[in-house]
Amino acid sequence: MTTVLTSQVKKLSGELSIPGDKSISHRSIMFGAIAKGTTTVSNFLTGEDCLSTIACFQKLGVTINQQENFVEIIGKGFEGLKEPTELLNVGNSGTTIRLMLGILSGRPFFAALEGDASIAKRPMTRVTDPLREMGASIDGRVNGKFTPISVRGGSLNGFTYELPMASAQVKSAILLAGLQASGTTTVIEPSRTRDHTERMIRQFGGEVTIDGLAVSVKGGQSLKATHVHVPGDISSAAFFLVAGAIVPNSEVTLRNVGLNPSRTGIIDVMVDMGADLHVSSEELEAAEPVADLTIKPSSLRATTIEGDMIPRLIDELPIIALLATQAEGITVIKDAEELKVKETNRIDTVVHELKTLGAKIEATDDGMIIYGGSKLHGGRVNSHGDHRIGMMLAIASLISDGEVILENEEAISVSYPMFFAHLNKLIN
Ligand code: SPQ
To answer: Is 267 in a helix, a strand, or coil?
Structure first.
């Protein structure tokens, strides 16, 4: 679908309650399914990716009742999962396929997984290689590199694995397999990535040991059902944080945003760039910390984003690139080659689409160089089927001085189905 975006906006004002975190919503279904008892989930994200996770577990024989953003999962433990009679379709969701491969590796049955055209291009050997090393039989296109992928699980051996890249999905897949393996499984990360899986193991009554960059689980643990309240997704809030920082005269408050330190790189970078960002009503004791965020425009300066910071804001880099077009000076993003294997090659799509709107931005091998102080103009842009690119372009349009037409707008519903409704609430 093609849509004409709102441009030349004079100000944004008001407050939003940010929808549930995508990463935590996926994991709440998965842990509910492998735990024993009835798990309830509130503020579940009803984005297409998380609905794919529900559909996959239903095909594995798990009873899941969903009513809007409240979900009930009747878990019967790992052993309650049944051989599916149909293909498991993960849609556009990398998290679903990679974490499910970890779960299915320990199950003594056959399952086959597929996804959409974007999933078919995303690398899977990062999970299939270590899971095979643990003992799972996995096959797939190009020797297990791409979907469709089949897995015949069984008994697994615990092991120690040094992650070649910073990836929470790979870490989580191995930990989920490790919970079913003999002995202890340890994952050593090159940089700390989001730790929602580790937190959820504890929330469901399991044990996980964290020693620096090493995360270990013992096999044979039994998880117990619980209630999960999903905090607002900071990756969704990021679009309105940047919008509030670059649209003149704005004041926007975002309620209940998840502030897990492994995800708050966007806040650190925005503050470093001079953003007028205020954190209030912090609740740090919950399984996942939350707070309200208020943002107003201010003069912004360029920055360099690299190293251990990258995994803490990997999904926010497209919208940070837009922010950097409005800062004074040259912003450099380095060490972010993982951007190339997301829903699109996000280095190429960000650079190409922002250039169409008049930004001065260059792609590098592992990131981007963004020249600040650009005036954006109208143009015809494309999400390329990537939700984060679509939302970044919708925010860019707000400060463009001509008409912006967005192609493939529907991709946005993967993570933020009410995105345009929320944006319009702030414009009016
Ligand atoms: O699920 P998917 O498609 O991989 O989603 C993305 C996103 O932009 O929403 C990445 F494209 O988020 C990933 C994130 O980049 C979600 C995630 C998780 O829930 O564990 C971890 C990150 O991926 P990775 O590969 O760095 O582990």
So the answer is: helix
